[in-house]
Design goal:
Blueprint lengths: L1 H13 L12 E6 L2 E6 L8 H13 L8 H11 L8 E6 L11 H8 L3 E6 L9 H7 L3 E4 L3 H13 L3 E9 L12 H11 L4 E5 H7 L14 E5 L19 E4 L10 E5 L2 H7 L5 E7 L16 E6 L3 E5 L1
Parallel strand pairs: 3-4, 4-5, 6-10, 6-11, 7-8, 7-10, 8-9
Antiparallel strand pairs: 1-2, 1-3, 11-13, 12-13
Helix pairs in contact: 4-5
Length: 321
């Protein structure tokens, strides 16, 4: 049962990978009255995964008001739980937070709700943020930390965001074609725009800019446009290309990648040449594989990577390192 529960909440959390920046992607579940209720952290400043799962479970058996914020939900559960969770089992990919930030402490909430057990996939890696498990143990709750590597993989971007995290994004067909206009589905394009809304810097090769004349914004979701670093050995780039006309962004054209040192969350988009030049220097690689073939020039590279997770929608989104 425990393996099944972690399979479930890890898969749910991966759906929001990168979108929780600067927070980690986290999944949680509560088993109460023989029913399973899942929750995920969706956006920084919004309720954490455990809170969403607990609130979903409580609402299934009680009449409740419509509450949105973490503070409202925490306070309501603290005042109205009446021991409802005492026989519940909680599962969460990351140790419940002990500190108070934009949201209240999840460990403190669980301490008062006092479920039967809390199963934790990975301890909080940030210095000064741990201690949640100890709070729960001191409250008499059965706590187990599994040290599940899959839960570490899930929060690796969060760990590296403390300094810098860089990933390469590449869209391609089943037979490795990356050229010829949009390859990905609308759902995948929307996801890319969601990610662009979160990143600090987008790096792209000069040849891609000259050929594709892109905008590189997040217009599909009305999001913010990241700063852009055009990596090119020579300029020769026309300034009427749409990416130069996006408000509230900086555009750099440089011969080196040193500008990346000024940013924490960086996505690189480009073609074969750029990929082969920097494939060994990025933290992760994300491939959006469209289920179709194209009779055009194939992407060529010699490379191996570890598959961390695959999200399946209209396309396959493969996360690897």
């Amino acid at each position: 049962m425990k393996n099944y529960m972690f399979d479930l909440i890890i898969n749910e959390a991966w759906k929001y990978q990168f979108l929780t920046y600067p927070n980690p992607a986290v999944g949680a579940a509560v088993i109460v009255n023989n029913q399973i209720f899942t929750g995920v952290h969706k956006k920084a400043g919004e309720p954490h995964a455990e809170v969403n799962a607990l609130w979903k479970a409580f609402r299934a058996f009680h009449k409740t008001p419509e509450l949105k914020t973490s503070h409202e939900i925490h306070e309501f559960l603290l005042q109205n739980h009446k021991g409802f969770f005492n026989n519940a089992n909680v599962f969460v990919t990351l140790e419940p937070c002990s500190h108070i930030g934009k949201t209240p402490s999840c460990a403190n909430l669980l301490k008062h709700l006092k479920p039967k057990s809390v199963n934790i996939g990975w301890p909080d890696p940030v210095k000064g943020h741990g201690g949640g498990a100890e709070i729960l143990k001191n409250a008499g709750i059965d706590v187990e930390i599994l040290n599940d590597k899959r839960c570490f993989d899930l929060i690796e971007p969060f760990i590296k965001w403390q300094k810098r995290f860089v990933f390469y994004k590449l869209a391609l067909t089943m037979n490795g074609v990356i050229t010829g206009g949009y390859i990905s589905s609308d759902k995948s394009l929307n996801w890319v725009h969601q990610v662009r809304d979160k990143i600090d810097l987008l790096v792209i090769g000069g040849n891609t800019v000259r050929i594709d004349r892109p905008t590189l914004d997040a217009r599909r979701i009305n999001g913010k446009a990241p700063d852009v670093l055009i990596y090119s050995k020579n300029d020769g780039i026309e300034r009427d290309i749409p990416l130069f006309n996006v408000k509230n962004r900086k555009v750099f054209i440089e011969e080196t990648l040193e500008k990346m040192n000024d940013y924490k969350f960086i996505m690189i988009e480009g073609g074969e040449r750029l990929y082969n030049e920097i494939k060994h220097t990025v933290d992760w690689k994300v491939f959006i594989v469209s289920p179709k073939f194209a009779n055009r020039f194939n992407f060529r590279s010699e490379d191996e990577f570890e598959i961390l997770h695959t999200n399946r929608s209209d396309d396959l989104i493969i996360f690897g390192r």
